[in-house]
Amino acid sequence: MDDTKISIEANHGGGQTINDENIEQTTHKHHYGILNHLFGGDDGTGHLLLPNVLHSLANYSNTIPAASTGTDAGGAEEGAAPPQPAKGGANMGTFIGVYLPCIQNIFGVILFIRLTWVVGTAGAVCGFLIVLMCCCITMLTAISMSAIATNGVVPAGGSYFMISRSLGPEFGGAVGILFYIGTTLAGAMYIVGAIEILITYIAPQLSIFGDTTIPENMYNNYRVFGTGLLCVIGLVVYVGVKFVNKFAGVALACVISSIFAVYVGLFVNFNGNDKLPMCVLGTRLIQQDGAGNCTKEPGSALYNQFCRPHEFNGVVCDEYFEKHNVSIVNGIKGLSSGVFFDNVWASFAEKDQILAKSFNDEDILPSTTAYSNGTVTKNVYNQVIVDITTTFTILVGIFFPSVTGIMAGSNRSGDLADAQKSIPIGTICAILTTSFVYLSCIFLFAGTVDNLLLRDKFGQSIGGRLVVANIAWPNEWVILIGSLLSTIGAGLQSLTGAPRLLQAIARDGIIPVLEPFCVSSSRGEPTRALILTLCICECGVLLGNVDYLAPLLSMFFLMCYGFVNLACAVQTLLKTPNWRPRFKYYHWMLSFLGLALCITVMFMTSWYYALLAMGIAGCIYKYIEYRGAEKEWGDGIRGLNLSAARFSLLRLEETPPHTKNWRPQIMILVKLNEDLTPKHKKLFAFASQLKAGKGLTISVSVLEGEFQKNVGEAAAARQSLRRLMDEERVKGFVDVLCSPDITMGMNCLIQTTGLGGLKPNTVMIGWPSGWRQKADEKTFIRAIRSVAAAKMALLVPKGIHFYPDSMDRVSGNIDIWWIVHDGGLLMLLPFLLKQHRTWKYCKMRIFTVAQIEDNSIQMKKDLKAFLYALRIDADVEVVEMMNSDISAYTYERTLLMEQRNQMLKELNLTKKRRRSMVETLVEQHSFDEKSPLVDREVVGNTIPEENENETGVEKNKVRFAEENGEEQAPEAESEEVSEEASGAEEAEEKQEEPAAPPPPEIQQEREPIKKLLDIKPDQDNVRRMHTAVKLNEVIVTKSHDAKLVIINLPSPPRSNSPESEANYMEFLEVLTEGLDRVLMVRGGGREVITIYS
């Protein structure tokens, strides 16, 4: 037993192989220990003793290997050396490894350029609720994420890894793509935010589209400069991540120093300052470049804006300008001023309204000027105009990206010394810290800055200056430079992580279309994924507005966080044995609350963006389900399916199914060839056509022999059955039973297959075409008896090799010969067949047989009424079958049948000799001119031709269907046909010349047969044969051109004697003679179709 290589299955569904010299020494040291004599075993299973396993686990390292340097999708190049472990290993603690990365990723551009605007627009109360709601979502998500992350070893991969391994590849792939798109759009938002800081607040002279106070010019600048910055960042990321990692420290220092400067400045300006004077006309806020312009004196800049020369009236001023005075108001009033009470309530506004302290129409609606040509223009002058409609829900969507980034710690789990301890503590502490900063800033900004200045998004009333920067200490450049660098750093981080996330999804192999993005460059960089990421990011940059990008990427992050909560809730409720997280402070109710909040905020913010995100996730889910690779990750959805199946099975077991819900749940009894392939492959095609993709199908087979000796053969047979079911698109299960006796195994399958309400109610078994030579009638008839005893329906397709494939199209008639009422199964089966495209264009014809004492006219009328009530369209015909004398053919056919049975019984022949003896028996009859048996007797597996125009010898030609479905003519049958064809010539020769006596050995062999010819047939068998012959004549006459004939299967004989069973098979042969495709049906003893709705 080789124990030198130990495979430890990690939580992510894969396996990490541990191959160490110490393990090898330890293994061989214990291999011949005393415990190995008892527990080592000699069965080749390779069990490891506990000391070996513990030693291996102690040396297990969860450090994620470096990126592959190969150019193929698999990773390393052929012949390359194996990757070496990282120097130092995983040694990062909670503070450095989780807390600080989360802080850096959570604090972003929204904090610097939009938080003051959110406070002024929403007010302190609504602003507090907005921030609190967003922080609650991230906190609940962090709790769920901590539970998942501490439930075993978690490699890098963030939410994608956790969701895919918890909810399965479909959900994981969908959410992974959403997370990737969200991260990419976050990079676009950071780039646009950085350009906004640069163009609006640092260097407005760089504008290439004119005045930056005009929104369209400003957004065009963002698009052009943003594209340039994106190219620079993309080039940096392409060169390598070393610079990105080094710059991350600089960006983190900028974020922390900027926040510290803001807090210090708030208390330094406790009594306010005069750095930011605002000009207010009445209650309206006026744009200005600096002090000295806020006056109504003629000739001033403000006067020239509102007063225009007129050719008749001299100078005409705006009405609002004439009525109201101007005043200078300090923007930063300080915490001691009591301005907080002016900022308590919300100040939501509509787009294109004037920013004013009051909300009277006179103050917020601009004046208009009507021209002679009928056009009307709004007079906005240099007043501050609202550029976007604001509501509570819109502000939630704009602010939410500022609380994202909580996955940064879980992404670094491979670098942590104790990931299961560091991830929960570091992430939750980071969220608490950032939440405190955001919530405190809500109240501090509301208590320090004037309401009009808070609502001035771009600082147009203070000369295009950043409000937060002018609050900070010691200088505004601390915030301007810090926010610019931190925003660029966040963009670098996003555009570095997004391509690697896409490559990780592609390498999982769950989305085939992403396979090209598995490839890495020679330096191990995901170049192709980076190019796609830059293209998507450019689309976001072209939007040119942070306020448009923020709600869009909020949808993707909310979807991602919602699925993290769902994953935790599902795992908790299922109580799977592997769900043992070290983080204990979670509950499924908290997870569901987080999920509900995510969905609520999505639709509150933008219902059409929410539907877009859900539509993308749904399309990806269905694509993975249809085309993606099957992965077994032990996910919660599989456990959920098991729980749902268990619940459904218990519910189905409570009451038997109603007639309206009955559908054939088919069990196919398959006979296998010597190479373990199914003998009748078209049974699966017919089952597929009958089911039309619905219901349950179980394919079973029996292997003769002991299970212990045939385990491999049974597995191969299962694979063969499964392969054929997949080819025919039959939904269901397969099973193979090993039994010392075939008949006993079939009985066991019929009795035990299925579970609860999903037990099969219909058995399909192929017709034993060579029963005369192989004596298969015993197994076949016993299967029929077992099915009848189990009260299951039975389907026996005869001539299965002539049935159409599932891709064929058949047009013609499906004839139903309704002889015995069996619960309506004969009428239900053709209806189900017509649901499949193969039989869709066939017409149903129902025949029933009337005897002399029956009223055929009334029978036809009643049957039509019954079919109308059943909503089945079919032509109805009543066939009258008169009583007639028993023909010589019937008598001779019965006599031949009994002679054969008696001969086989007395001589106790083997299977190999039965065929020759039957041919000898036929030879004795072949020259009897009075016997009609010569023209109709068929030996072996034959189906006569249906062409009635043929006469003489051509009419009696037969087709022989071998097991492979090809039409062949065995030697014996060919000789028989040739004997028939030359029968006339031989008769003439016999008349001319006396027949030569046969050799003595042949006379001796024929002596017992001559004795058998003296047997008189049993009268009951003669009557049964007479019925079969007459009914066959009627069926062939009416249905010779039918594409399928469905007929009742006669009951098997009560006697178990070989003679009775052989007679029964002979009756079935006579009944179906001359028909290519016959389906013999026997009901299960219950009604399967009803006239009620």
Give your account of this protein's structure.
The structure is a single chain. Helix content is 52%, strand content 10%. It contains 40 helices and 22 strands. The longest helix is centred in the first third of the chain and has 35 residues, at 115-149. The strands form six sheets. Strands 12-11-10-13-14-22-21-15-16-17 form a ten-stranded mixed beta sheet, sandwiched between helices. It has a three-stranded antiparallel beta sheet with strand order 4-3-7, with no helix packed on it. Strand 16 (841-850), helix 31 (856-869) and strand 17 form a beta-alpha-beta unit. By secondary structure, the chain is α/β, with parallel strands linked by helices.
Structural class: alpha/beta
The level of helicity is: 40-55%
Outline the biggest β-sheet: 10 strands, mixed
Strand order, sheet with most strands: 12-11-10-13-14-22-21-15-16-17
How far apart, in Å, are the first and last alpha carbons?
66 Å
Taking pLDDT < 50 over at least 5 consecutive residues as the criterion, the unreliable ranges are: 1-32, 37-46, 57-89, 921-992
Cα shape: elongated
Q: Radius of gyration, rounded?
A: 44 Å
The overall pLDDT, averaged over residues, is: 78
Contiguous helical run count:
40
Number of strands: 22
* Binned strand content: 5-15%
